[in-house]
Amino acid sequence: MSYQQTIEQARKTFEQSGLTLDGIEPENVARMRLQNRFQTGLDIARYTAKIMRDDMAAYDADTSHYTQSLGCWHGFIGQQKMISIKKHFGDTKGRYLYLSGWMVAALRSDFGPLPDQSMHEKTTVPGLIEELYTFLRQADARELGGLFRELDDATEAGNDVKAQEIRKAIDNHQTHVVPIIADIDAGFGNAEATYLLSKKMIEAGACCIQIENQVSDEKQCGHQDGKVTVPHEDFLAKIRAVRYAFMELGVDDGVIVARTDSLGAGLTKQIAVTHEKGDIGDQYNSFLDCEEVDPASLDHGEVLITRDGKLMKPKRLPSNLFQFRPGTGEDRCVLDCIVALQNGADLLWIETEKPHVEQIAAMVDRIRETVPNAKLVYNNSPSFNWTLNFRQQVYDAWEKEGKDLSKSDRDRLMSVDYDGTDLAKEADERIRTFQADAAERAGIFHHLITLPTYHTAALSTDNLAKEYFGDQAMLGYVKNVQREEIRQGIACVKHQNMAGSDLGDDHKEYFAGEAALKAGGKHNTMNQFAAE
Length: 532
Known about the structure:
With 532 residues, the chain is α/β, with parallel strands linked by helices. It folds into three domains: 38-156 and 171-287 and 324-450, TIM Barrel (Alpha-Beta Barrel), CATH 3.20.20; 454-490, no CATH class; 494-532, no CATH class. It is built from 19 helices and 14 strands. The protein has helices spanning 3-17, 26-34, 41-61, 75-89, 101-107, 124-156, 160-171, 191-204, 232-248, 280-285, 329-342, 357-368, 386-401, 422-432, 434-441, 452-468, 474-488, 495-498, 501-512; strands spanning 67-72, 95-99, 180-183, 208-212, 228-229, 255-260, 267-268, 290-292, 305-307, 310-314, 322-323, 347-350, 376-379, 444-449. The strands form three sheets. An eight-stranded parallel β-sheet has the order 12-6-4-3-2-1-14-13. The protein has a three-stranded mixed β-sheet with strand order 5-7-11, with no helix packed on it. The longest helix has 33 residues, at 124-156. It is globular.
């Protein structure tokens, strides 16, 4: 609905209401309605689910249309990402936000910083989703408020051409609200717990939920040791729980990302139930590390299974966990992915130990033999040493080609001594094109960085502390922060405006007219930045 149509709708509401609406202006009502386009989290979930589905179809048609996101741990961080994206690229198409369980644990728990082991309060996740969308909606209101003020100035000046341009900009305004891929870890309990938490996340606005196949109470970060997976039927029950939550709430095209940690997980807590040879439980158990036993030699309390007519004893650790045969991780990943896609998941997430296009592609090729349109979400993780990994990949490729590498030490390639070399330049180029290459070759629809702002906050704070508390003192802030904000057009240099001061002034004028006591007068120091 256009700006003018929204005004007319408000005016008709006034005429038909029979209410006393003295002092209430239809145009102000229309503005407030446009600034609050999404009434509920479910409105957002339905809107963003369609965006993701459309983007998935576009990727199927052309792999250059892959999507990207960055992880967020606060609403302000997510808001600034989208404001920056709109500033630099004109629109938000193909750019999402990622909500990382790791960052929630490390930065948002009442217990203080925690490792990524699902020990944080489960309600923190839907709370952060709601917070992110509150900040994104405020970004919409702020941007539209600026256009409304420009429209008033043009109208007052009698500049009809300018006023028409601004009305067109209002009608074509693109929201900052984008899909959030939300991490539910391993579901925080049984399938019922997963269902209940999924509902909270969807009601907060999540259109996409990512769930992993680890044991909920043994959950580990995907890039640490000690990961324990569950049998497929247990995982599928949780996928179904998420789907039921979407369907119950009317988000029928909600997206489920099924993550497998099997590549680096060598343990299971349970032996799968199996009813006949070759069923999914039997396939899971086939990877167990077992030894054939003589029944007469068994000790008390042993666990046994049969395999190919033989009595086998799975290797059980003192922790009461069972281990898989070494070298079966990739086969287990492929099976996990096929089973998940055949039973309700929409996208895959394969957690790897390094960013290597061909390693990922080799698994995706096998998956696509059964599910041709299989697509991945991939973690471009800060847990990888990208510089070292890619320099070693180039080293290995060049060594295979017979190039002279006598002046290079594969184990020292991270050293600054290599920064200007051809090897380092080639590695950087491969890093630059990694996402596009993996989208084309390895079926990666969505690339994300889980923890970027955790690291950028630490780096920028370290640099500021070094300057401000050192010899540079106040110049350390002015030169490296404020001056750069002004020169680069960072909206937050006007921090009062970003926090909603001008929005508040608009409302004060709506509510009190000429009697409004507004903060944005000539003595507001934010006016010092008006010329920039």
